[in-house]
Amino acid sequence: MSAGGEDELVHHERLSPSHDARALPISMAVIHYTEMQSAEEALERLTDPDSKVSAHYLVSRSGEVTRLVPEDRRAWHAGVSYWRGIRDVNSASIGIELDHPGHKYGYTAFPDAQFEALVPLLARMVKAHGIPRANVVGHSDVAPQRKIDPGELFPWERLAEYGLCLPTPTPMLVDPFDNDGAFLLALERFGYDITDGPKAIEAFQRRWRPRKIDGEPDGEIRAILFQLLLDRDEGRTR
Asked: Alpha-carbon distance 144 to 10, whole Å?
């Protein structure tokens, strides 16, 4: 179904039955990949009542945006997840699916046309709902034990240039944590679920230092985390 002239950023509307009432105000945006071989295959799953999954938007590889669930409704995209004290991430977030083969079908860079459609869509929701940059996250950030999307090739730094997520900070040239336990507690303080420590570390690396993802805390990622926390405490990273 075409979205007609109602919304210049949305090309189609294909509503999913999988949604319910929000229990929290919107404070997050979660970016996913579909891990399917086509947008149509993803749309069929996201609108299938038996699948019990949905998202608010799907952005195709060619840059076409389909609305699946109105933003004022709770879409079922994040599953069991956690971010900064919030356990009902679905209630607090808008879910955006990117049409992409994912790691299962041959992980590749995200097309420019898709990114260029994502930017204004995300910019509008960030402004409309007052979403902090630190709360524009990937599925792997909110569900590190289960998910790795949108993955290490997602262009977070390009998105940060538009002010839509946090940039990777330039860390101090010191190793700020005495041991791995202190690092994990700091990771929890930043927002991650650290129930599975190595998976939480992998998720942090995938987002902030994607060239090496091994689940091991080294001096570089410890310094990046320390700088992120320092910037947040000093009010520079809303």
From this structure: 30
Residues 190 and 149 in one domain: no
**pTM (predicted TM-score):** 0.95
125 and 62 within one domain? yes
pLDDT, tens digit (0-9, with 9 covering 90-100), for 131-143: 999 999 999 999 9
Q: What is the per-residue pLDDT for 20?
A: 98
Options 97, 216, 220, 234, the catalytic residue: 97
8 A C-beta contact, residue 149 and residue 102:
yes
Indicate the helix (H) or strand (E) that contains 229: helix 219-233
Q: Catalytic: 35? A: no
Burial state string for 22-50 with b = 16 or more CB within 10 A and e = fewer than 16: beeebbbbbbbbbbbeebeebbebbbeee
Domain that holds residue 117: 12-161
Report the CATH number at residue 132: 3.40.80.10
